[in-house]
Amino acid sequence: MRVAMIGTGYVGLVSGTCFSDFGHDVTCIDKDASKIERLKKGEIPIFEPGLDELVRRNVEAGRLQFDTDLTQAVRDADVVFIAVGTPSRRGDGHADLSYVHAAAREIAAVAQGFTVVVTKSTVPVGTGSDLEHIIRDAAPEADIAVVSNPEFLREGAAIEDFKRPDRVVIGTDDPRAREVMAALYRPLSLNAAPILFTERNTAELIKYASNAFLAMKITFINEMADLCEKVGGNVQEVARGIGLDGRIGSKFLHAGPGYGGSCFPKDTLALTRTAQEAGAPIRLIETVTTVNETRKAAMGRKVLEALDCPPRGATVAVLGLTFKPNTDDMRDSPAINIVQSLLDRGVKVRAYDPVGMHEARKVLPDSVIYADGAYECAEGADCLVIITEWDAFRALDLDRLKTILKTPTVVDLRNIYPPADLASRGFKYIGVGRGSSIAV
Ligand code: UDX
Asked: How far is the CA of 406 from the centre of ligand 1 (A)?
């Protein structure tokens, strides 16, 4: 089948490339000419494990093309995906749909024959109907069906998630569109991935409901962690104990510094706005968004409290800056708030991240000093803070760390070390929600 993918951001590039790997003929389109030039040369503008190899393979096979102009690709396409950005609108927290609307108008102007237009971008419920109106106004003769097909890709595991999804959700009432989408995803249905056909509004809601539920799960365990610290208890064991109940499930129960990234903060906010305006507020998620924001600031205070010296002039070594491992993405990373609250109190911040430092430099204050590695970062510091659980930080040489830190204090915001390992070596170790096992 012929696919046009509009937008070569994270979602568009990964999805387009994976569709081509299934044997479809895919053109990825972006207005950013320099990005398209780079992609044509095989340079991948984002960090995603395995993506460069997959792009190269499919470009070589002639199944994956890149273009700045959508005309030809859309004209030829059976399916056109809209995978452009939907950032939070400044002021009201709603998703900004201007790029999605503009893409729909451009598609309407050039589409030929029956064309299925699919929203891959995360869009609020009702957007599919809006797009249908926009397209009808722009090109009354066009034979176009608008379908919702939300993505559930995790950064860092996006290819695996695309190829072996828990489910594929397709929202449409149009039988012809349903047939086209079923054919597009046939390679996955052979892998026994459940393909769930729903009404379009329902599909749009499923995406927001999934992200909101996951954000709620994380926030729940984070608050349990706070309680463990106050009353004594180990949040990891609580998570295991409740997660073994099949109704709860063990995933997404890792306590930490609060969720970040390009999806959860933005989507939870957008869902609460939609729900408020519809007169059916989702108070649980309103609380989740507030608690998560508060948590990031609280993590800065946690580090300050761990210091055995006055903050002004102290040096804190920060390991991990990205919102999670295996990505260079700094969007809404808890590290931003933590670093800022340390700097506000006169702390010198030295930081290291295996992949994210280039992006970090764009968003963190200039006074942050960057180190070339974990040990360089720790050298002479009054405290070491682990913010992101990169594998490279999981097996640090603790004896070496002890000798190079000025004060052997470790604040482990991801609970990647057993407290006893550090305590037996004379560290002051502070994890998250392991109140009874904090050893000094
Ligand atoms: C998320 C969804 O998982 C994905 O389905 C959706 O399409 C996009 O948003 P992503 O943002 O890439 O994906 O990251 P994810 O792995 O879900 O983690 C999100 C945040 O939650 C990270 O900051 C992570 O550190 C945090 N998290 C996750 C926890 O703090 N604890 C957990 O148990 C899980």
From this structure: 34
pLDDT digits (tens, 9 = 90+) for 179-238: 999 999 999 877 788 999 999 999 999 999 999 999 999 999 999 999 999 999 999 999
Tens of pLDDT, residue by residue over 126-147, are 999 999 999 999 999 999 999 9
Cα dihedral 329, 334, 339, 341 sign: positive
Quote the pLDDT of residue 435.
64
The reply, when asked if residue 69 is annotated as ligand binding, is no
Please tell me the CATH code under which domain 2-197 is placed: 3.40.50.720
Choosing from 18, 263, 377, 383, which is the catalytic residue? 263
Query: What's 392's DSSP letter?
Result: G
Indicate if the pLDDT at residue 440 is higher than 70.
no
**Amino acid residing at 96:** D
Rounded to whole angstroms, the Cα distance separating 359 from 9 reads 15
Residues in the chain: 440
Give the whole-angstrom CA distance, residue 149 versus residue 129. Answer: 14
Residue with the smallest CA separation from ligand 1 atom 1 is 154
- When pLDDT is averaged across residues 99-119 and rounded to a whole number, the result is 96
Q: Please name the residue whose Cα sits nearest to atom 26 of ligand 1.
A: 259
Q: What is the pLDDT of residue 438?
A: 44
The question of ipTM being above 0.85 is answered as yes
**Does 3.40.1440.10 match the CATH number of domain 208-289?**
no
Task: Kindly give the number of the ligand 1 atom that is closest to the alpha carbon of 215.
Answer: 21
Whether 263 is catalytic is: yes
Q: What is the H or E stretch that residue 355 is in?
A: none
Which of 324, 393, 414 is the pocket-test mutation for ligand 1 (most atoms within 8 Å of CB)? 324
Rounded distance from Cα 333 to ligand 1 centre (Å)? 11
Instruction: List pocket residues of ligand 1, CB cut-off 6 Å.
Output: 151-155, 211, 214, 218, 252-254, 256, 259-261, 263-264, 323-324
Give this prediction's pTM.
0.94
- Helix, strand or coil, per DSSP, at residue 374: helix
3.20.20.70, 3.40.50.620, 3.30.70.980, 3.40.50.720: which CATH number matches 295-437?
A: 3.40.50.720
